[in-house]
Write the structure tokens for this entry.
Amino acid sequence: MSKLFSPIQLRELPLSNRVVVSPMCQYSALDGAMQEWHRIHLGQMAQSGAGLVMVEASSPTPEGRITHGCVGLWDDRTEAAMASVLHSLRATSPAKLAIQIGHAGRKASSSRPWEGGQIIGLDQGGWQTWGPSAIAHMEGETIPHELSVAQLKSLTEAFLSTVARADRLGFDAIELHAAHGYLLHEFLSPIANQRQDAYGGSLENRMRFPLQLFTAMRAAWPAHKPMGLRLSATDWVEGSGWDIADACEFARRLEYLGADWIDVSSGGVSRAQQIKLGPGYQVPFAQAIKAVVKIPVIAVGLITEAKQAESILENNQADMVALGRGFLWDPHWAWKAAAELGASIAAPRQYWRSNPAQYKDVFGSIRFGAR
């Protein structure tokens, strides 16, 4: 039996398989509100057969968006727009849905990727960014405002409001975003965090705000619903940044505080990063974290082939795998992976007759139907 297509349970949430659709920014919202593009995009992902589909990073405040086109969940208007999209998903798919909640920190106020992706200055229609320290991501960019302790408390309240909205919307799970150089990762990394108070300096201090925020969110989220966190396992800056040893300690603390999974990515906090790309290049980080926690670990990063994903789980390097660009390229990636691995997967009845005969002959039987 395929490990990739075996079930797994997160608290009281059963997942039919261990394939996750990663949260993927679409940069297509209007003042934080989801639009018709999100209905079509997420509709495809919800029909993918993945065990869990994550909605893109959604900001608790307007200032926390990466770009003008990023999704938010901070008021009744943005909640209503998201509710409309979710209504369509639930009317057509039994997919389990999670939302990633995150704040872009000093990397906010950026242009969309197809517009260059650079920080938009205050004189060009951008907004004042926030961070743990008044240090820009790159020389010449807007210097972020250093968050005061009082502002950290206010920001926590904004996150908790978003948690309440996510619960009203009926999401099955939440992932807190603490990776890719965004606000919580900025607090964790000494490259971005050079504070002199209780939230900077030592590893203990740098972890303080992310752990406090996670604790508050976990308490506000229903006890039967799972909550996890995505982290960057390393800054890829030798000798001066956040590294895998730090990430392992952070993961241990999160497990103690009630985290239900750790989603292991890397990089994003420094332009000096030296990333060594290759198939599954981040999997060793997931394996290292899995060695120190008992909760499920999700592996990500250039996982493109079914047998590759299966091998990661068989070799106990992770408990689940998540794909982002892979699903953008092929929304039916999970169907083909199931065919190749001889597993069964849920798919809409309207598509059952699409099952090509050659899959039975070459890849093993794929049995479309509800589990």
